[in-house]
Write a structure and sequence with these properties.
The protein has helices spanning about 1-5, 10-15, 15-35, 40-65, 75-90, 95-120, 125-145, 175-195, 195-215, 220-245, 255-265, 275-295, 300-325, and strands at about 150, 165-170, 170-175, 245. By secondary structure, the chain is mainly alpha-helical. It has one domain: ABC transporter involved in vitamin B12 uptake, BtuC (Orthogonal Bundle). The chain is globular, with a radius of gyration of 20 Å.
Length: about 325
């Protein structure tokens, strides 16, 4: 195993990424054998619908986890952004493009509040994110009077936003959402690995005090990670409604765990200081194929929750063991 890891090609690609790709292939092969009609383009498009919004959530929370923090509010914040902006569209008749911007702005606002409390008021990220999770649910319910919000269908007026996930070309659909998600992942990877902000995010996660003593404004950069996370939750809301149309207040909790699972599975350390955007992307694909495969095989969605929980435990355990061997 050591020789394999030290192979120049393996080191360049990343051993963890290779393992993740193998897991993805094995999982797809398993469901292809045991689930009827799983190997079809429509099934793949359905899995991608799930991957789009979950991908943006996972990309955003990767920045927070890289700093050594955590954000359990991303799912409810996504729903709050989708519900409030949708209510502005359907009830107050705001222009669609303004509502889409409002969705992103609402997510960024929650991220800013979360980051301010963590960075400038030294409130533990676990506490702030749990509080904002509850707050976002309550705000969405109060704003819409606890009503379900349905965004327009493609054939209706203002339904063009649904082309963000797929566009019909002849008798088939082009998964535009996958292209957008890939571009977003590339941008996030550049930010994390090639910019000053990314270096500070990872350095804060490794040794926050050392970074502070070197003269870096730790609070500003730590807060920025949460702002990015909130902004990505607002974008995820747009892709959620583009895929599923209807949003109910008070939901979104389960997507917190799945987004974090995608990060941790992809090689992002829960202790901070180590993160992989490409690994997060592959992790999201694994979770999306998993949920579609479980439905195709005829099992209850609760099985996905069990398996996702086991994946998180296994990924965190492996991370802990790797750090023990390192030190």
């Amino acid at each position: 195993m050591y020789r394999i890891k030290q192979n120049p090609l393996v080191r360049k690609i990343g051993f963890n990424r290779i393992v993740l790709c193998l897991v993805l292939l094995v999982m797809y092969g398993f469901f292809a054998l045991f689930a009827k009609n799983f190997v079809s383009y429509n099934r793949l498009l359905s899995a991608m619908n799930y991957a789009y919004f979950l991908g943006f959530l996972s990309l955003g929370v990767t920045f927070v986890i890289a700093t050594g923090g955590i954000d359990f509010s991303i799912g409810p914040v996504m729903f709050c952004s989708a519900i409030m902006s949708g209510y502005l569209l359907t009830h107050y008749k705001w222009p669609l493009w303004i509502c889409l911007i409002a969705s992103v702005a609402i997510g960024a606002l929650y991220g800013t509040l979360n980051g301010y409390l963590v960075a400038y008021r030294d409130v533990p990220s676990f506490i702030t994110s749990m509080a904002i999770m509850q707050m976002s649910k309550g705000v969405a319910s109060v704003f819409t009077k606890a009503q379900t919000v349905s965004w327009p269908q493609l054939a209706e007026e203002n339904g063009w936003y649904r082309n963000l996930i797929k566009v019909k070309a002849g008798n088939t659909y082009i998964p535009v959402g996958l292209i957008i998600l890939l571009v977003a992942a590339i941008i996030c990877s550049i930010i994390l690995n090639k910019t000053k902000a990314g270096r500070y995010f990872l350095s804060i996660g490794s040794n926050k005090e050392a970074v502070r003593l070197s003269g870096v404004n730790v609070k500003k950069w730590q807060m920025l990670a949460y702002v990015i996370c909130g902004l990505m939750a607002g974008i995820a809301a747009i892709f959620f409604v583009a895929a599923y149309t209807t949003v109910q207040p008070g939901y979104g909790d389960q997507y917190n765990n799945e987004a974090i699972a995608g990060c941790v599975m992809g090689g992002t350390s829960m202790a901070g200081g180590l993160a992989s955007i490409s690994g997060t992307f592959i992790g999201v694909m694994i979770i999306s194929i998993l949920q579609e495969g479980i439905l195709a095989i005829g099992l209850n969605k609760n099985y996905q929750l069990v398996i996702t929980g086991l994946i998180v435990i296994a990924a965190v355990y492996l991370d802990v063991m790797a750090r023990r061997r390192k030190y």
